[in-house]
Amino acid sequence: MKKRIVPFLLALAVLIAAMIPAATAGGTVKYVYTRNSKPLNVRSWPSVNAALLGTIPNGRTVTVENYTADYAWAVITFEGKTAYVMSQYLVDASPVYPTPVPGGDTQNIISAMENEFRTYRVVSPYTVLAKPVRATGWVNLRYVPSTEFGHADNLYANTQLTVVAETANWLQVRKNDTGVTGYVMRQYTISMGVGTGR
User: How far apart are CA 135 and CA 77, in angstroms?
Assistant: First the structure.
């Protein structure tokens, strides 16, 4: 019986290793942005049911060593151990908490934005170009995926952007020339294909 168990355990270990990429040297610095200002949970395994190792305060930086195969979880080092956090709560720039524009229904605006965030997913980076369709000749780069909040920058025609995440109607992008990160509506971009990986 023991002879049968050992090969099974070895096969299981190989399968698990294939599912969770090994950490790479260096890493990428990200900011924790939970949107409700609560700390980010750190898990022992890439699952919301895994043991809780601790939390990271909103706005703090973390160094991402790698991602799981589906990019849903980021691999980090926490208190000297390999740990996991949900990648949807990590952003490239220090979080900014803008105020809604005057005259809007704040509760409905926040609710709509939260619904958009529920579709958030990290993607393998790819390049798009800004595609203005208005007379202004530029597109708003927003702090958050909502037209009811202020904008971080103007995106003129053919501005190159690297997409790092997507929601149902928005792209989270980084300007290739300045590194500024924000959200732009999908309809105002043209895809240029897959860019460099992480």
Answer: 48
